[in-house]
Amino acid sequence: MLRRVRSMFVAVSIRKWIVATHMKCDLCQRYGSSRPRTIHSWPPTTSNNQRWHMDIGTTDQVSFLACVDVHCNWIMAARIKNHTPSEITKKLLLFFEHNGCPLFLVSDNFPSFKDVSFCTLLKGKGITPFYSPPYTPQSNGPIERCMKILKDGMAKSSLSTFDQRLQEAVINHHNGSTDVDGKSPNQRRLQVLADYHIINDISYEKVMNHSVWFKTPNMTNWEEGIVTYQLSKDIFIVRTKDDKEMVIKGCHLKDRLKTETSQTIKVRPADPRPPMTIDSSIDSEPTKPVLLDSRAFQLRGGRKRKMIKFLLVNS
């Protein structure tokens, strides 16, 4: 608005006059665009099940309930038939059964989340409900990011049913995504490593020559590669079959056993001893020295004497 006014009128201190008039206008303050607000982060958690964030998402005209434990980024999701408090309570009790009850449950101002029976159930289990300010979805940011992860994962899935796609998206998130320390949600919550993690004694910044299978999120099949260098605790440089180098996370790698197809032939090592020269002169008659093969000394007994005699006669 200020640019438009300045392009049409020229006056001294016109900008200050416009701003002052706008601040005094009651209609402008009531219906005008709100100023940018300062968003403060949630206090950090120290253990699992301290604070969960909850929301309802919809994709392909199907709704699902999702919760996330912000300490370990553990996602829980289930399909819901409708948005009634009873249906939400049914799925939420299933989350409590498998993962325990949180201390705080953060959600938006959806009517079913503020239902009296729903709040009574939470307080009966020692859970304190929190609600984000109206028209401020940024305050419920953790679950908004998880909704995006689930929707993107289901969009990439090739499975047929909605439940299978949702399950695959949750499993891929638990096994694949990592934090700054290189730990997946599985490891942070269950204290276990995913099956396809490289299990070795990791030391940062080292040269490697390790055969692996790798699969990035935009790939459908596992491909062969060789880890040539380790950049950090969970970041590796992989050389592909096309002799290209890719920077890949450790959660997208798994060990590849080398299969030797060539037959191994055992070769007897050569005799390191030098050939021996003996003098075969009889009655002081000069003769040329005879060079004996080292194979003669590998025989024993009569066979050794016959071999030496044969070599002396045919020399």
From TrEMBL:
GO terms for molecular function: nucleic acid binding. Residues 39-152 form the Integrase catalytic domain. Pfam families: rve. GO terms for biological process: DNA integration. It comes from the Eukaryota. PANTHER family: PROTEIN CBG26694, PROTEIN NYNRIN-LIKE. This is Integrase catalytic domain-containing protein. It comes from Strongyloides venezuelensis (Threadworm).
